[in-house]
């Protein structure tokens, strides 16, 4: 019985690690740093995001995710002196599109960006915590577009905690006695992001180079087994476009394609509409998984907030009441008093 339970737990844990190993996000449009390290330093301010996701509400042991990200630009010229300001006036708050600004050769040099991310993802008895640092360089391509190339590196700790495992029929003392097995693994991500103020396309690959690691017991619990775990690269292709529907409404369609080893290709299709740079609503479809409703407020040039709710489409909806996600953004050193991001949305 003991070996069967341990095998079952290991199988579930390894499935989590070999299929969708990275946390699921519905508001990655609000924080594209989560899927692509090339975006660090893309804005004119220090971009800080705090996020929380409660997936499959009321489903015992369902994933919960917390994260903190921060990034900013180095040696980026002030647009008010070397180029057009991205913000118009107090009466019309929508961004100036590139066609209204300038064309021809780049007027500003490239710049650097640095960032850091801390992500905690928990599912039942398994959890992982990642701490990564990121660097990107933004290269002018035309008068209104840039290509950013970036990478992030750090460590991820994987843990399987038997004290969070509940066995209701014939509980085995070896399981009920608790104990943990852990492993620390290097993590490397790379990405590229080609963008202007009204479109972007990005590619990235996460969890590269390092695949296998040993989960080893912690403490003195000799009854806890040791396993070998595996991680696989995650590949992302994203693209989006922004256009002015009216003087005050801006529409932003986007798409994300995801590929993970041992799992089929999946995709998200998104549509956001923003009014006067203050308020936005949107919807997403994650194929064969969920419909998502999105809403957000740009409260000031310092603070913004977004909320999403996933309507689950798979059979798990019989036990779950959907998924909730909330993201709070802080824009420090926002000299131009920008109300919303100009280059990532």
Textual characterization of the structure:
Residues 1-19 form the signal peptide. InterPro entries: PorP/SprF_Bacteroidetes (IPR019861). The protein contains 4 helices and 17 strands. The chain has helices at 2-18, 79-82, 98-101, 173-176, and strands at residues 46-54, 64-74, 111-123, 126-140, 146-161, 180-195, 199-206, 212-218, 227-230, 234-241, 243-244, 249-260, 266-275, 279-286, 290-298, 303-312, 323-332.
The portion of residues assigned to helices is under 10%
- Estimated share of beta-strand residues: over 45%
Radius of gyration: 22 Å
What would the principal axes of the Cα set say about the shape?
A: globular
How far apart, in Å, are the first and last alpha carbons?
Answer: 51 Å
Q: Which strands sit side by side, in order, in the main sheet?
A: 1-2-3-4-5-6-7-10-12-13-14-15-16-17
Mean pLDDT: 81
Alpha-beta classification: mainly beta
Number of helices: 4
Order of helices and strands: HEEHHEEEHEEEEEEEEEEEE
Q: Largest sheet, if any?
A: 14 strands, antiparallel, barrel
- Count the strands? 17
Spans of 5+ residues with little confidence (pLDDT < 50)? 1-19, 80-104
Protein name: Type IX secretion system membrane protein PorP/SprF
Pfam families: PorP_SprF (PF11751)
Keywords: Signal
Signal peptide: 1-19
Task: Kindly list the characteristics that best describe this protein.
345 residues; mainly beta; disordered N terminus; globular
């Amino acid at each position: 019985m003991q070996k069967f339970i341990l095998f079952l737990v290991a199988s579930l844990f390894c499935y989590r690690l070999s299929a969708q190993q990275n946390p699921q996000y519905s508001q990655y449009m609000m924080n594209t740093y989560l899927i692509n390290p090339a975006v660090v330093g893309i804005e004119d301010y220090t971009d800080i995001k705090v996020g929380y996701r409660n997936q499959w509400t009321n489903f015992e042991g369902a994933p919960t995710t917390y994260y903190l990200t921060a990034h900013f630009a180095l040696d980026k010229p002030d647009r008010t002196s070397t180029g057009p300001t991205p913000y118009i006036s107090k009466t019309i708050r929508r961004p100036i599109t590139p066609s209204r600004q300038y064309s021809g050769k780049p007027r500003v040099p490239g710049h650097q960006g640095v960032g850091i991310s801390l992500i905690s993802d928990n599912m039942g008895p398994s959890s992982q915590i990642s701490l990564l640092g990121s660097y990107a360089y933004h290269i002018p391509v035309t008068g209104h577009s840039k290509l950013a190339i970036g990478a992030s590196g750090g460590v991820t700790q994987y843990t399987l905690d038997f004290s969070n495992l509940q066995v209701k029929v014939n509980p085995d003392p070896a399981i009920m006695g608790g104990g943990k097995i852990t492993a620390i693994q290097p993590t490397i991500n790379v990405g590229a992001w080609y963008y202007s103020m009204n479109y972007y396309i990005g590619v990235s690959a996460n969890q590269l180079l390092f695949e296998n690691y040993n989960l080893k017991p912690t403490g003195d619990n000799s009854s806890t087994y040791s396993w070998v775990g595996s991680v696989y690269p995650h590949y992302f292709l994203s693209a989006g476009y922004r256009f002015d529907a009216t003087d005050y409404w801006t529409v932003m369609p986007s798409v994300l394609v995801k590929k993970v080893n041992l799992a089929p290709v999946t995709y998200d299709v998104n549509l956001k509409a923003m009014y006067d740079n203050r308020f936005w609503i949107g919807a997403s479809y994650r194929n064969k998984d969920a419909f998502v409703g999105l809403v957000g407020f740009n409260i000031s040039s310092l603070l913004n907030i977004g909320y999403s709710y996933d309507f689950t489409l798979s059979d798990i909806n019989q036990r779950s009441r959907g998924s909730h996600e909330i993201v709070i953004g802080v824009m420090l050193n926002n000299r131009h008093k920008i109300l919303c991001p100009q280059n990532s949305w």
